[in-house]
TrEMBL record:
This is Fe-S cluster assembly protein SufD. The lineage of its organism: Bacteria, Bacillati, Actinomycetota, Actinomycetes, Micrococcales. Residues 1-21 are annotated as: Disordered. PANTHER family: PROTEIN ABCI7, CHLOROPLASTIC. Residues 137-361 form the SUF system FeS cluster assembly SufBD core domain. It comes from the Bacteria. The gene is sufD.
Length: 392
């Protein structure tokens, strides 16, 4: 009897039945999406998009009852900025995408209303959204940040204090608009924050999305940027510093859905202390229609002590051969001893040399914000982290 394997291993259905419907979705673009939580199966923690997340700590936000509007954010005033509240069944809601996980769908169904920030000024404006008055009760929120065609703005989401929040942030970038959205997480040590940032970028539009995660017990912030207009540009940057017992997770998705689009993704993180856990998953899809695409993504992790864990998974899917370029990179490791030796040879102590490396490592992302006051404050926060570390 022949034992030669002539078919692909695993090609035939298994004996448990319904094999085709049980096969896991491997492509980010094919994930199920719905605004109705009941349409999703129960989260077990074995799913590809949940397997690194501490489910037990966030279960109430995934499928439990949520409060809406427990603390309204404070939005700064600036020329060409209009702030309104719209119902969740409005045509203004859902233009940047709908939920692809249970926590986002739960927030969508219980947010009540959406806060809409409309930006129309063609002169660069800076808008801050202060969210420091949240409670510890499980809550839902929905925010729409919309840049009208040719608008130019920097929007900074300031998150601090207590939180037990699941939310969606929609970002709509009109044709020719230039928008930077910065989300800063400086929550209290036991805060929980789950966020889906969905963005659509129009023709020749530019979106720079920056995440800085420093505080919070569990932070899971997933940007999803859809380059839907020809010539659209999307940049996604992140900096994070995970301490003992802290879970910081970022799942980034870039969807090239039009010709001659460009994207850059760069996330950098430092980890210290027993149980510090960082998760980065980067998915880039270059669709068949997206000829001339230029894309690159990278994640770098610097582990400062023993007992830390960094999961880093870059994924790249290309459906057309007519592209300018595409690539990805991922590294996780300790200090480069050559860098430390070089600084020591200049009269700098070993401890100070290691701190300098960490500062420079993270500041490369932070300096992209474009606001000196915010950048200086974040530098001080990172300095405080370093002073408490074993490097001090």
């Amino acid at each position: 009897m022949s034992t030669l394997q002539t078919e692909q291993h695993g090609f035939k259905a298994h004996s448990d039945g319904d094999w085709e419907n049980r096969a896991p979705v491997q492509t980010r673009s094919e994930r199920f999406k719905s605004t109705n939580l009941a349409d999703f199966p129960e989260v077990t923690g074995r799913e590809v998009n949940w397997k690194f997340t501490p489910i037990a700590k966030i279960r109430a936000l995934i499928d439990g009852p949520l409060e809406a509007g427990t603390a309204a954010p404070v939005v700064s005033d600036a020329p060409g900025v209009e702030v309104t509240h719209v119902p969740m069944d409005s045509d203004l809601v859902g233009r940047a995408g709908i939920p692809e996980d249970q926590a986002a769908a739960n927030a969508w169904g219980q947010a009540g209303t959406a806060l809409r920030i409309l930006l129309t000024s063609e002169e660069r404006q800076t808008v801050t959204v202060d969210r420091s008055g949240l409670a510890q009760n499980p809550a839902a929120a929905h925010t729409i940040i919309e840049a009208a065609p040719n608008a130019n703005a920097l929007v900074i989401l300031e998150n601090s204090g207590d939180a037990n929040l699941t939310e969606t942030v929609e970002i709509v970038v009109g044709d020719g608009a230039n928008l930077t959205v910065v989300s800063i997480q400086e929550w209290a040590d036991d805060a929980i924050h789950l966020a889906s940032h969905n963005a659509t970028v129009g023709r020749d539009g530019n979106l720079q999305h920056i995440v800085v995660s420093l505080g919070g017990g569990v932070v899971r912030l997933n940007p999803s940027i859809h380059l839907d207009g020809q010539g659209a540009n999307g940049e996604s940057y992140g900096a994070y510093f995970a301490d003992a017992g802290q879970h910081l997770e970022h799942q980034v998705y870039i969807d090239h859905n039009a010709p001659r689009t460009r994207s850059r993704v760069a996330y950098k993180g430092a980890l210290q202390g027993e149980g510090a856990h960082a998760v980065w998953i980067g998915d880039v899809l270059i669709r068949r229609i997206a000829e001339g695409t230029d894309s690159y993504e990278e994640n770098r992790n610097l582990t400062l002590t023993e007992g830390t864990r960094a999961d880093s998974i870059p994924n790249l899917e290309i459906e057309t051969g007519d592209i300018e370029g595409a690539g990805h990179a991922s590294t996780t490791g300790r200090f480069d001893e050559e860098h430390i030796f070089y600084l020591q040879s200049r009269g700098i102590s070993e401890d100070d040399a290691r701190k300098l490396v960490v500062r420079g490592f993270l500041f490369e992302v932070i300096q992209r914000i474009g606001n000196e006051q915010v950048e200086a404050r974040l530098q001080e926060a990172i300095e405080a982290e370093l002073q408490q570390s074993v490097l001090a």
